[in-house]
Amino acid sequence: MINSEQLQRAFIRARNYLDSNREIVNGLNVFPVPDGDTGTNMTLTIKSSIKNLENSDVKNCSDVVKAVSDGALMGARGNSGVILSQILRGFYVGAKDKEELDVETLKECFVNAYKVAYKSVIKPTEGTILTVIREMGEFAEKSYADFNDEVEFCNAILKVGFESLNRTPEILPILKEAGVVDAGGRGLLYLFEGALGNEIVEINRNYDFNKPARTEHLAAQNDEDIEFGYCTEFMITSDSEEYTVLRDKLSEIGDSLIVVKGDNIIKVHVHTNHPGQAIEWALEFGPLHDLKIDNMRRQHNHLHHTDKEVEEAKNNKEIKIENKKYGFVSISTGNGIDEIFKSMGVDEIITGGQTMNPSTEDILNAVDKINADDIFIFPNNSNIILVSEQAAKISKKNLHIIKTKQIPEAFSALFNFDESLSVEENIEAMTDAILNIKVGQITYSLRDTEIDGVKILKDDFMGISGGKIKISKKDISEVFEDLVAELIDDETSIVSVYYGEDVTKEDAEKLVEKVSENYDDVEIELVYGGQPVYYYLISAE
User: Fold this and answer.
1) Which of 76, 142, 437, 460 is 20–30 Å from 236 (CA)?
2) H/E run at residue 440
3) By the 8 A CB rule, do 45 and 85 touch?
4) How far is CA 381 from CA 12, 52, 241, 277, in A?
5) Mean model confidence pLDDT for the chain
């Protein structure tokens, strides 16, 4: 049997072992760009878990796993961090009310871990951390009766985990092309290896884990097209574990759906044209409270405060910020980009992006500073979308995630925002704006590789468009020219070039001037972005 003290030490060892190997996981990147962050995101997530554990009064194993799970939920960063938080949530479901962990309870932990993780992702992609935890859980469910010793059982599960990780390149073609495995899965196994510590048996990993690989950004993709008029929220006092039945019913009449089960509570948020029907179904589960229905098509009276008013309100707690209809939170990177967002009326700017993903708590803290009926969040990175959605599940405010993956997409979305329109209409307008913009990036390569037929050498300048490396050359001016040509088509009227912190204005002006000679009908504007890692961000509309 594993007691609470042993379990606490195991989680602390897991944190330490992943932390000491985070750069290996960071290096497991399909694209050889200098922003591999899976190891960092998972490490920061588990550190948040341990911090919460150290600040909690735990008496048994159930308490330990709950503290770890709660901490991970609030500290989750990036897709890999969010998925890890859900894996830990599943462990808590399996260990709930248990004083100690025996083999059968461990089986329940692993089974629930993969089931909760899969439920958290609307479109799971196999060949990722999800596959690894699922196959570990399926083995635990099938084989637990063959084990009497908890450590032997965990070692057997770990062995299955490595076998699963070794197969990820056979499942995801992009991994096989790069000759690598999934980073999220490797991070998970580092945690498990650390938890077992000196009691781990020798595992045949069959893989050189110093080779690069990462596809945790593929683990989940979720596209929304919200078209419903009433934002309906309520809490149900209920012990029912059949809340997924309610979720399935509500999915038939609405969108932007969240149905989360807590202790004796079911929290529901749905955008629907039939709030009465939603309430009627909910009453079958128990009494309702904290009921709120907003007509999202209502006109609003005021949008923004002046910078002076907001600053005065922040500096003087006695000055109350007047409620407004809409608020905005954006992830940003670079002084120039920050200033652009401020000029477009963004209320709260969170420093983040490729190399430093904000946590769920960071987003919630920003949201709490805004007194608005509805708040739009712009993640501006595919790896921050899940964290933003996690914040929307937790927050009591109406949060709407505009799934921007690049900074210029957020600029275009904000430009198309119309304060006279409803939430639904603005979401549609901003989403359409995102679809009509092309974005390119120029950065440098960390290693030699070949992806999608493009040969890449270490220290090459790379042009990236549509999530793929299109160009790799030694001359940045050639990459710039080729990438602009890749982005411009017959419909393009304006190209915006945002130069980064490692580029001088003079060098940027020379490139823009040279390229402009080739496109008489296209306006090319140069803007200081100040972003790290990427020398240039280029958008074409």
Assistant:
1) 76
2) strand 438-444
3) yes
4) 30, 27, 34, 36
5) 83
What does the longest C-alpha to C-alpha distance in the chain come to? 76
287 close to 322: Cβ distance less than 8 angstroms: no
- d(C-alpha 213, C-alpha 186), whole Å: 10
- Sheet with 536-540, side-by-side order of all strands: 468-473, 461-465, 438-444, 536-540, 494-499, 523-528
Q: How far apart, in whole angstroms, are the C-alpha atoms of residue 208 and residue 218?
A: 22
Summarize pLDDT for 323-362 with one digit per residue, the tens. Answer: 889 999 999 988 889 988 988 889 999 987 655 688 888 8
Q: Say if residue 468 is exposed, middle or buried (CB neighbours under 10 Å; 0-12, 13-18, 19+).
A: exposed
Residue 355: both structure tokens together: 């190399």
Q: Is the pLDDT of residue 202 over 90?
A: no
Single-letter amino acid, residue 400: H
Using CA atoms, how far residue 525 sits from 135, 409, 417, 464, 513, in Å, is 51, 16, 22, 20, 10
442 touches 479 (CB < 8 A): yes
Angle at 30 between CA 25 and CA 35, to 5 degrees: 60
Place of tokens 């007194």: 371
Q: Are strands 288-295 and 254-262 parallel, antiparallel or unpaired?
A: unpaired
- Distance CA(43)–CA(295), nearest Å, equals 41
| Torsion angle of the four alpha carbons 451, 456, 460, 464, in this order, in degrees rounded to the nearest 10 | -20
C-beta atoms surrounding 391 within 10 Å: 27
454 is written with which tokens?
A: 């493009």
Which segments of 344-493 does DSSP mark as H helices, in order?
360-368, 385-394, 407-415, 423-435, 476-487
Residue pair 52/68 in contact (Cβ under 8 Å)? The answer is yes
Regarding beta strands 324-332 and 348-351, do their DSSP bridges make them parallel or antiparallel, or are they unpaired?
A: parallel
Burial class (CB in 10 A: 0-12, 13-18, 19+), 317: exposed
Taking the C-alpha atoms of residue 80 and residue 183, their distance in angstroms, rounded to an integer, is: 9
Structure tokens at 157: 């599960």
* Helix pair angle (150-171, 129-143), 10° resolution: 140
Query: Strand 523-528 to strand 536-540: parallel, antiparallel, or no bridges (unpaired)?
Result: unpaired
Query: Does pTM surpass 0.70?
Result: no
